[in-house]
Design a protein that fits this description.
heterodimer; A: about 500 residues; alpha/beta; 6-stranded mixed sheet; 24 strands; about 35% helix; about 25% strand; B: about 325 residues; mainly alpha; two-stranded antiparallel ribbon; two-stranded antiparallel sheet; 13 helices; about 75% helix; globular
């Protein structure tokens, strides 16, 4: 990181003046002024819908602003589309990577700018340059490998190398740690610091406030399309930042209720899936919130999916209330009273084009004499919407148009409607607002209070430490340990998850 | 995702509902415009005879379109319907000729022929996991081949006079194919809006994985829609066979394209999750009107095809346009 004083004397890389963007009926970005200095790590914070994405799209020229000026290195820019933005030195690392999986790393790095000699692609030059770029982002893979064979973290590194390939002056990163494990996040931060020391600016968007404080020099907070504040992170603390984002005081983020833990509801024993899970056992009691901790790829999601019957297993038993279940299909698990809220809400949890009502009844459609009972469906949807405080003008609204927090509640409503007694929440706070997060954890607490058994999968340790009664830690597809609430500490979980300190 | 305040959400909701209706209104509007234009320019157009004729022409496309709508809603496609209609015609009429089946049984045989091909399509798509385009493209070829093999390339002429009733008869002076269409369409509409099958079809097309994880037996329902599509292709084939009182091995070449066009003009999305029976009917009638009008106005047959192509472009362009607007307004 270049020193602040030094940075201040330089011309900003990006300067926005009075930038606005209006969509039919919504002023997504409203008169924004923003300056990003060379070599600065500048965080953009705000709830969903605050206008962060639109602002990024304006910078990367995916969207054209209705008003205002954008300058890059002091020059006013014309809007000609994403290719033009790249030529001006604006690179974007998307949350869902924009790589071609069937092409090699090298081919992806130079897509559209292939080095040629006499009109043909010079594959050797391509590979050599690629190797050099990969070195700069600390990625040790063969440039000839297909992108589809890389891990998510490696693909992200390729995206960043791509930004270097176009000699970006500013790299925009949208939730870059969303799919990374703790260790990978550390490595990413190393890369970011390195870029910044070379004078490349980073615009960093994240819902994880702790990351903002760890990596960013300054933070700009947006709310309702406007910039509320731009400040050095050293002059803020987490609570102040949350209040700026939400515009009001937020109470306890993790309202864990006092619940008497009861009988064992779900017992999974010896769950094994060749190459993925090995002899995993755990149990969940009524009223209990059990956490699954571990690195990304440790098998947490896989274990939940196996118990739920979403993926086939090679051996293992699942008992509910002491009765053995025939596992192997989601139908059987649902009938027995298990629900699974997927990590990827849009990809696997919701039928986005269907209404709130139809999603709520998806796992248990009311019927009468063989026909759908639409009246009962509507009542159900209205009752659940009220119970869970789902914000929607009508229960007929397509869930596509709801906010992340409300979408999440629709999925919860679906499982309540399916009478689930054991609920797996896989990364439930991903992609939802700070305010909605507190509400979601409140809801999880309520469900436990009603005597349900909850399994909470999270990559964010504070969530587990605050919400859970007990945590089991997975590593490499195995359950490597369990901790009760009294024994909780971030260090112990990390030690178990990484296997660094076996003796602890 | 938008987290606009409650006050901003309501117009959004209204807009998206209107917009859903508008997409069908657009197709319906086009239908009315073409109808009125033809009524003005051609004196022969607005006669009961001609109108029934259009209905009968639209009937086969629309009957098969009902099944196709279901398939397309699940994000699938059935390219084999034209070949299956021909195969059903040959097998159905043959059962009358060589086994002495009465016409109603022969029609049933035709429908069951369609069911059989649908079972194979359904198996290939849902169990063997072939892409629907490929699975039914194979059936398009195989069924046509089977049609020629079983008829030795010759038309099979029906023997029972009463078989004519199905395609050419009238009940209360309404042509039977139109009555068949109404029955199929009403049943299709009820299935789509009031049964699990319909609900699950939309859910599967909208998000197959979410549907599976909600405990919906996805494979069974996906298989089922191809069986229904096959059955209705068989039924359509029998209507067509009755109209010419024979099974024709060349019948229905390219018919699948008309049927898909009707469904898509009616607002269904090839990506699944969207489509209605009413829309498909509008699409089928629009195509029939254009064909009929071209004949009345003595427009070259080749131009008809150009017009239909342009109508497909416009309909789908309109649909995408309005969808982008919904997406944009939700941020």
């Amino acid at each position: 990181m270049s020193s602040e004083a030094e940075a201040r004397t330089k011309e900003p890389v990006v300067r926005l003046r009075g930038v606005s963007k209006e969509f039919p009926g919504v002023l997504a970005v409203d008169g924004v002024d923003l300056e990003i200095l060379p070599g600065e790590v500048h965080a953009l914070a705000g709830e969903n819908g605050a206008g962060k994405s639109t602002l990024m799209k304006i910078l990367s020229q995916v969207e054209r602003p209705n008003a205002g000026e954008v300058e890059i290195s002091g020059e006013p820019v014309e809007f000609r589309g994403p290719g033009h933005a790249q030529r001006l030195g604006v690179a974007m690392v998307y949350q869902e990577f924009a790589l071609a999986p069937h092409l090699s790393v090298a081919e992806n790095l130079f897509l559209g700018r292939e080095p040629t000699s006499v009109g043909f692609i010079n594959r050797r030059a391509e590979k050599e340059k690629a190797a050099e770029l990969l070195g700069r982002v600390g990625l040790d893979v063969d440039p000839g490998r297909l992108v589809s064979s890389l891990t998510v973290a490696e693909q992200q590194r390729v995206e960043i190398a791509k930004a270097l390939a176009i000699e970006a002056k500013i790299v925009i990163m949208d939730e870059p740690t969303a799919t990374l494990a703790e260790k990978e996040t550390e490595e990413l931060f190393e890369v970011i610091r390195d870029l910044s020391s070379r004078g490349i600016s980073i615009l960093y968007i994240s819902h994880h406030l702790d990351e903002i404080f760890r990596i960013a020099d300054r933070v700009t907070v947006m709310r309702d399309g406007k910039v509320v504040e731009t400040k050095p992170t050293s002059e803020l603390d987490e609570e102040e930042l949350v209040n700026l984002m939400v515009g009001r005081q937020v109470g306890n983020l993790y309202p864990k209720p006092e619940v008497e833990v009861g009988e064992v509801l779900l017992r999974a024993g010896g769950i094994t899936r060749e190459g993925v899970l090995r002899n995993c056992s755990f149990e969940v009691r009524s009223g209990e919130i059990l956490g699954f901790a571990g690195l990304v790829g440790a098998g947490r999601t896989e274990l939940a999916r196996a118990v739920f019957g979403a993926d086939p297993i090679d051996s293992g038993r699942v008992e509910l209330d002491g009765r053995e279940l025939q596992i192997g299909s989601p139908q059987a698990a649902i009938d027995a009273g298990i629900g699974y809220l997927t990590e990827d809400r849009k990809g696997a949890g919701l039928a986005l084009q269907l209404g709130v009502d139809q999603n709520i009844t998806l796992a248990n459609v009311p019927t009468k004499a063989g026909f759908l009972d639409l009246g009962a469906e509507q009542r159900t949807a209205e009752d659940r919407s009220e119970q869970l405080d789902i914000q929607t003008p009508t229960t007929k609204r397509k869930v596509q148009l709801l906010s992340g927090g409300n979408q999440q509640k629709v999925v919860v409503a679906k499982w309540l409607e399916a009478r689930a007694r054991v609920l797996f929440f896989d990364e439930p706070s991903r992609g939802i607002d700070v305010g909605a997060k507190a509400e979601m954890f409140g809801l999880i607490g309520e469900l436990a209070k009603e005597g349900r058994g909850i399994v909470l999968i999270s990559s964010y340790l504070p969530e587990l430490l605050n919400m859970c009664d007990r945590v089991v830690v997975l590593r490499g597809g195995e359950v490597v340990g369990g901790l009760n609430r009294e024994e909780f500490s971030e260090e112990r979980i990390v030690a178990l998850a990484t296997g660094v300190e076996e003796a602890a | 995702m938008s987290t606009a305040g409650a006050s901003e959400r309501i117009p959004g909701a209204l807009r998206e509902r209107l917009s859903d209706a508008v997409s069908q209104l657009a197709a319906a509007g086009a239908l009315i415009v073409v109808f009125v234009l033809l009524a003005i320019v051609s004196p022969d157009f607005l006669t009961a005879n001609n109108l029934f004729n259009i209905g009968v022409q639209a009937a086969v496309t629309a009957v098969i379109g009902v099944g196709m709508t279901l398939v397309i809603i699940t994000a699938g496609i059935d390219l084999s319907v034209g070949s299956v209609a021909a195969l059903a015609g040959i097998i159905g009429v043959s059962s009358m000729v060589s086994l002495g089946f009465p016409p109603f049984l022969a029609i049933l045989v035709g429908v069951l022929t369609g069911v059989a091909t649908g079972l194979i399509n359904g198996f290939l798509v849902s169990v063997a996991n072939l892409n629907p385009f490929i699975a039914t493209l194979g059936m398009l070829s195989a069924a046509r081949g089977l049609t020629f093999v079983s008829s030795e390339g010759q038309a099979v002429f029906a023997t029972e006079e009463s078989f004519r009733l199905f395609g050419q008869g009238e009940i209360a002076s309404i042509p039977v194919p139109i009555i068949a269409l109404v029955l199929v369409a009403v049943a299709g509409h009820i299935v789509l809006t009031r049964t699990r099958l319909g609900r699950y079809a939309y859910a599967i097309g909208s998000n197959r994985e979410a549907a599976r994880l909600s405990g919906i037996p996805v494979r069974r329902y996906v298989g089922l829609v191809y069986v229904i599509s096959g059955a209705l292709a068989g039924l359509g084939g029998m209507i067509a066979a009755s109209r010419v009182f024979s099974g024709q091995p060349n019948y229905g070449t390219g018919l699948e394209l008309d049927v898909i066009a009707a469904v898509v003009i009616g607002g269904a999305s090839l990506f699944g999750g969207q489509g209605t029976i009413v829309g498909t009917l509008i699409g089928a009638f629009l195509i029939a009107l254009i064909r009929n009008g071209s004949v009345l106005l003595d427009v070259n047959l080749f131009y008809q095809q150009i017009i239909i192509g342009v109508v497909i472009w416009l309909a789908v362009y309109w649909d995408q346009f309005r969808r982008r607007r919904i997406a944009a307004s939700s941020g």
